[in-house]
Amino acid sequence: MPRLFEKQERERLGRPMVLSLLLHVGVLGGITLLIYFLGMFHGEEWGNNAPTGAIQAQLVSSAPTIPLPQDHAPNNNVLATQTPSEAPAIPSKKTETIPSPKAIAIPVKKKIRHPKKKKPHQNAPQRVQQKPRQHRANYGEQRATQIPHSVTGNPTPNNTVSVNGGNFSSRFPYYVNLITAKVSGAWYRQEIDPSTPYGSKVSVIFVIARDGSVSGIHIDQPSNSPTLNSSAVRAVERVESFGPLPNAYKGSSVSVEYTFTYSRPTQ
Amino acid sequence: MKTSPRISRHLCSPFLLVLALFFVLAPATKLRAQDWVRTGTNLGVQRIRLAVAGFKPGTNDPQTFVLKSIFDQVLYSDLENAGIFDMVSKSMAPPAMPGSPKELVLSQWSQPPSNAQMVAFGTLGVSGGQLTVQGYLYDTKNADTPQVLGKQYSAQANEADARDIAHRFADEIILRLGGIPGIAETKIYYVVGRGMHKEIWVMDYDGANKQQVTHLGSDSMAPAVSPDNSKLAFETFGKYGMQIRIYSLLLHRYLHFVSPGGTTISPAWSPDSQHLAYSSSAAGNPDIYVSDANGMNRHRITAFRGPNAQPVWNPKTGSQIAWESGMTGLPQIYTMDADGSNVSRLTDGGYAVSPSWSPNGQFLAFAWDRHYGPGAPGGEDIYIMDIATHRWVQLTHGQGVNDFPSWAPDGRHIVFQRTEGGRTDIWSMLANGQQQEQLTHNGSSTMPDWSWK
Q1: Is the same domain home to B331 and B295?
Q2: Which of A38, A55, A102, B72 has a CA positioned 20 to 30 A from the CA of residue B189?
Q3: Does residue B322 have a pLDDT over 90?
Q4: Structural domain total, chain B
Q5: B42, A168: Cβ pair inside 8 Å?
Q6: Residue B124 parent element (H or E)
Q7: Domain ranges, residue B268
């Protein structure tokens, strides 16, 4: 009979529960009323609504609990102090000596100030642009080579040697002609940016070994056009061999300075 | 002060001696390399004007005069064929026949009408069955040091050797003045059809001295001589169909080659003479294979639909192969790496076959019919293409059907076959299309291959 048993339990707990609740409510209500009334009347009894404070206690290391005799005799002077201040003394006033009316002043050499002369305003010097000379071949502005020019000019009218150091060019003009022709044949103008101005020049230096092979290719004087510079280097690189150096030539290698000029294509 | 034996032993050590030698010699080498040449593009480039004096007979042997005329003619034509000289015609040349430098009067040659810059001259004589030739090349405008070349040759007194000496002397002159070896000593291998069969023949570069190489009594075609001139690969019709065979030019016998089966054609040598590329239908579709020179270690490098044939290696690098492929219909020229990667198409249409790679690796020569089809204008001509830019130049114009170009080792000449009026012959020309010259006249010569050196 579980239902019945539950009913019996509920009936037994009901009354004490209600009584307990009422008792708690009563106690709470009593406390609340007490607090209310105490608050109403506290002003008179607890000292004029002064702000509440707290008592502070400071611990000191040496409390002068025992009155020991002093080290020095007490000074009765009221103004005296045991620890005189370190304030600086008041400077004494300087007295100016009044010159005697008979004294003669020592003459003092005075600097004579000349009035500054105004410099006339100078303008920056005007640089004169050199006009290109007419009817004259304009060669490149190349710096002078450091090599001794023992022979200058063409040794023969048909050979394209211009300048040499040593006598290679004069002795073997056909080989110089060969260098000129092979590099010129391997130079592809299609590689050059068409906007490159005509007359641009680039100088490439390389070395021809005994067997005709090429090494040490580098630009000596670049032009302003990167495509012209690279096309010049590529032209020399394309030449695998210039053929063996002349038998009569005893040197081990020949250095070549080759100037590429981007000129107007001939029609 | 006495040097201790230990230190003196160190001082005499070979290492230190070498080091000391280096420091002594290094400045000397630097000093020697001080000759400078300064030149440029704006100075003009002209062909060298070259005169060839008739060689002076050295002896009174009757054979001397016969061989002298052959020698003079071959030397002149070799220098003319080189394509780098402005030859002084024989009518313009002075009648003098200097045999030695002492007999040469430079002004005689440098002045009009010959205006020669260079003159080749010398002596030729036969004595006791021996042909002796002394040849010189002099710079006529350089009075101080005129000699450019001085050579002496000796051989048996016969026509072939006289021609050979003339070729060698011409090649020396071309090397000196042109900077690269001449081709006068090179050979051209080609196919001659006689009756029902085709055999491989060889001739000098100028068409002289023709000789038969193979005697198989079959159809032997597509000769390819190895870069070291030791072996000849070709295709021949045998028991198992078209197969590749190798003939040793040194041993004069056939070498073993493992053919893959199927139709195997168009062999091509790698630049190191160690590998062969060819086309084979062993796996069904005709594809490009690469193997060792004896046919071993074979592997296929193309797998494209349609026929793939006529491979050719890049002779400069050996790392690329060009070939013709019908993967898109009509045959076109393609390039790829030697392992089959990086395939690139070069021709954009028409009918393009027979690629040949230039010795410097820069150009491809090939036969191209740009407007292929019935009634289309133009015909099959020889073209060269700059591989880097794909720009092409047409070399032959409307003269017959041209095919099978092959570069000369100097990179300045091309040999090819031309069919005109039902006759096919071998022609050569400069790589700019000039100086076209017919080398064979039998009407059935095809598939030329220029030797590598």
Answers
A1: yes
A2: B72
A3: yes
A4: 2
A5: no
A6: strand B118-127
A7: 187-450
